[in-house]
Amino acid sequence: MSENEQREMLVALGKSLFDRGYSVGTAGNISVRLEDGFLMTPTNSSLGRLKADRISKLDRNWQHISGDKPTKEVFLHRAVLEARPQEGAVVHLHSTYATALSCLARSDEGQAAMPALTPYFIMRVGRALPVVPYFRPGDPAMEESIRGAAKEHRALLLANHGPVIASATLESAVNAAEELEESAKLALLLKNLPVNELSEHDITDLLDTFG
Asked: Is the pLDDT of residue 116 over 70?
């Protein structure tokens, strides 16, 4: 897919996410890996009102080279895409249910944010959803914590902030972000109720079958 096609897809999918309430105002940001660098949504931009020719472009060293100034969370995308060179896009949202999960207290810092409830969560999001400790939005100190989590997981939650998810393409990253939000909604609806979690055998079977 050409750079121009990636730009147009970013605009279309950003608007789709915005129109359905997955982001509000100027919350959230998206990046796409190119052969010669990266595309990224501009700072203080609404995902519902992006312009293809104003999307930020960064070179392979993450230096801004054209378009509007990129999101202040460049480091977030850098951490994930460098930790996961197999992935081609990152979506960071403030979607309601996933963000609600990120705000819940946890007894164990290493505790996963939610149980494995559906096969589609495993197939599109992954085995587990770690929570990165709270940092002020835009704080570069967050980068190493994100990088560490991203080495083992394609999706994570930023505590009291929201979800981050990577995938091979922009379209699959958006699909995974939507699946994560619906999975978070299920987890909150079922909180404190007995649930039938997928077994380790179920999870391994799904990963072996679908990758």
From this structure: yes
The CATH number that applies at residue 206 is 3.40.225.10
What Å distances lie between residue 4 and 23, 55, 89, CA to CA?
A: 24, 11, 15
Domain count within the chain = 1
Q: Which residue has the tokens 């987890």?
A: 187
Token reading at 207: 């990963």
Angle, CA 65 vertex, CA 61 and CA 71 arms, to 5°: 80
- Please, what is the average pLDDT of the chain? 95
47 burial (CB, 10 Å; 0-12 / 13-18 / 19+) is buried
Contact partners, residue 92, CB within 8 Å, separation at least 6? 28, 29, 30, 73, 76, 77, 162, 163, 164, 165
Sheet bearing 29-34, strands edge to edge:
64-66, 56-58, 37-40, 29-34, 89-92, 162-167, 155-158, 131-132
Q: What is the average per-residue pLDDT within 5-29?
A: 96
Which has the closest alpha carbon to 149: 101, 84, 53, 196?
84
* CA atoms 124, 129, 132, 134: torsion sign: positive
Answer yes or no: pTM beyond 0.70.
yes
Return the active site residues.
73, 120
Q: Which of 157, 125, 137 is nearest to 75 (CA)?
A: 137
Give the structural domain span for 206. Answer: 3-210
Contact (Cβ atoms closer than 8 angstroms) between residue 72 and residue 138: yes
Amino acid at 47: L
